[in-house]
DNA sequence: TCGTCATATGAACGTTTGCTCATATGATTA
DNA sequence: TAATCATATGAGCAAACGTTCATATGACGA
């Protein structure tokens, strides 16, 4: 295969593996979306937000107070979480209450926690 | 609570929620490690590497060929994956074969996939 | 209606990230 | 031993990210 030629000289060794694996790769954009999804979990502020929302729905101001951060920073991050459909919100007068979008998310967090304590 | 004073004026509204949630927050460094862990999944190249290693163990050169990327780029990313203990490796002569560190990882990937197709 | 409050948003800025290129390391073969 | 090959690594650079600051929006109460 020409596509491997520029990388290694000894391509014939594992050609069988490569052929087989190339056949079962999910489409490019699906893997991109997957990375995009996990990227959202890859920031301490957002992890904290998700964690506290796992305990209770909360307004922006509550979260900012709880995490000791500015309202703007939290609002920006909530937008990211909202875009990835990790949180939902309801408006109540001036306040906006955020909550986890579904139970899926806590389960992913829990699995991550499991892995880092081993 | 003084820590909330600079954020909002109307702090007394949800003080109860805040007190309760603050009591059950995991330690700062644990949440940091968790974000650190997920950050590794938050890149297309690394997701692809994890995906192909889920199919078969593979040497650096195989991965680079399969993904159509340079050997150096793959090697750099494998170091990140190694540091987070997501992959293990064995040496065989000049080649180094990488594999997923444990089954945990595929399960996390699968859960992510589930979420993005909904 | 005006002032106030909670939230959202845009620009700016410093930091982090991921790639490339060049080179180092370490093992194999001639 | 010298040449070759697979992998690792450091520097450099462009792009992406997360925070802050200033300001906009939109709802409530006086």
Task: Walk me through this protein's architecture.
Helices cover 62% and strands 12% of the residues of chain A. Chain A contains seven helices and three strands; from the N terminus they run H-H-H-H-E-H-H-E-E-H. Mean pLDDT of chain A is 90; it is low at 1-6. At the A-B interface, helix 2, helix 3, helix 4, strand 1 and helix 5 of A face helix 2, helix 3, helix 4, strand 1 and helix 5 of B. The structure holds a DNA duplex (30 and 30 nucleotides).
How are the SSEs placed, and which strands pair?
Two copies of one chain form a homodimer.
Chain A: H1 2-5, H2 15-23, H3 28-41, H4 44-55, E1 58-59, H5 60-67, H6 71-83, E2 87-92, E3 95-100, H7 104-116
Antiparallel strand pairs in A: 1-3, 2-3
Helix pairs in contact in A: 5-6
The structure holds a DNA duplex (30 and 30 nucleotides).
Looking at the overall shape, the CATH architecture of the largest domain in chain A is Orthogonal Bundle
Q: Which percent bin holds the helix content of chain A?
A: 55-70%
Top CATH class of the largest domain in chain A: Mainly Alpha
Structural domain tally of chain A = 2
* Structure class of chain A: mainly alpha
- What is the average per-residue confidence, as pLDDT of chain A, rounded to a whole number? 90
The stretches of 5 or more residues of chain A where confidence is low (pLDDT under 50) are: 1-6
Largest interface: A-B, 59 and 59 residues
| Spatial gap, N to C terminus of chain A | 42 Å
Shape of chain A: elongated
Total helical segments of chain A: 7
How would you characterize the largest beta sheet of chain A?
A: 3 strands, antiparallel
Task: Give the full name of the CATH homologous superfamily of the largest domain in chain A.
Answer: Winged helix-like DNA-binding domain superfamily/Winged helix DNA-binding domain
| CA-based gyration radius of chain A | 21 Å
CATH fold-level topology of the largest domain in chain A: Arc Repressor Mutant, subunit A
